[in-house]
Give the backbone structure.
Amino acid sequence: MTNARVLDDAPWLRSGPAARVLELLNKDGEEARVVGGAVRNALMKIPTGDIDIATSALPVEVIRRAAAAGIKSVPTGIAHGTVTLVVDTQPFEVTTLREDAETFGRKAKVAFGRDWAADAARRDFTVNGLSVDADGVVYDYVGGLDDIAARRVRFIGDPDKRIAEDYLRILRFFRIHAAYGSGEPDRAGYLACIAGRAGLAALSAERVRMEMLKLLVADGALAAVSAMADPGLLLPIFGGIAYIGPFSGMIAAERLLGLKPDPIRRLAALAVAVTEDARRVAVRLRLTNAEARALDSMGHRWWRLDGMDEARARRRLYRLGEDFYRNRLLLAWARSGGNTDDGRWTGLATLPQRWSAPKFPLKAADFIARGMAEGPALGQVLALAEDAWLAADFPCEATALAAIADQAVARINPR
């Protein structure tokens, strides 16, 4: 152990589900520690997400102990030594200490061991190579404590070798830097990512999607994405141009409005100029149906929202609904190149908070009473009347509605 300190502010080590798992595995000659991101986050005093645990116990022993304690176990990655234990509905990935026996990308053969330093050495970044025991003692075999203090993200060992083991680490390098680093990316790591960029083509769309959507909402997303764009690292991901200016504009608009960062909204700003871009990106990243619809809606004639007055904005809001309206408007704003404190854009973006779209008050019965028969023509007259109602700025008076209905019928059944 080259460096160590005691982690004081981690109550989950002393009590609760994680402490129970550690107690279960820390006996009869075996040892367990929390590893990776949970340790990093606790040291940086930011919220801890998943808690992963490493142990000297073999997977079969982990399963045996869990069963004896009445804890559910799931062999989620048994070939690589990972068993998921579920305690009070909270899952914990428990992985036996490992060393790479043969390395060829994601299909590396591993040998189980008892060497904590060797296990740390096979991880990706120094800030993720730390472990902490049940007493709060942090173990650092790779220089992670110094890098956390400096907010520096470095590969463990040879960056080229780490990347060749798994090319997703190129994206993880920028994502981890965007979330936890500061300043310029580590030079050696950056150059290794550029040298290994051809390997991005071999990654599954699902894995790329996961990393990119996390990266886009990180605090340092703009600097990280800009660093990726300069040497062409985004081209094999999106298959098209990356628009850094609109991406910057989207981040600024979200912050000005107090909106939570949205990965699909930011993805549209970065990679979508027209609907064809949206469809290509959705396929390349294998977005969910809902994500693809949102991206496609943003790319659909967003430029028509630039320069519109509030009356037209109300019609757009009525047609699109609140979420699609706001997202498309923000894309138009981000791509306008204007000042993000422009009061006109802010007013349009906050329209859903100031105005609720009414329901179209005319019904099929109103037109049947005017002699329309059920069938396709009834649908046409309803559509014509709705268009006229929107153009008249949503009137609700009976006389105005009657005039709209009469005019729509006259257009379908001229005399």
In short: The chain has four domains: 1-150, 152-236, 239-357, 364-412. The two ends are 93 Å apart (CA to CA). The chain has a mean pLDDT of 93.
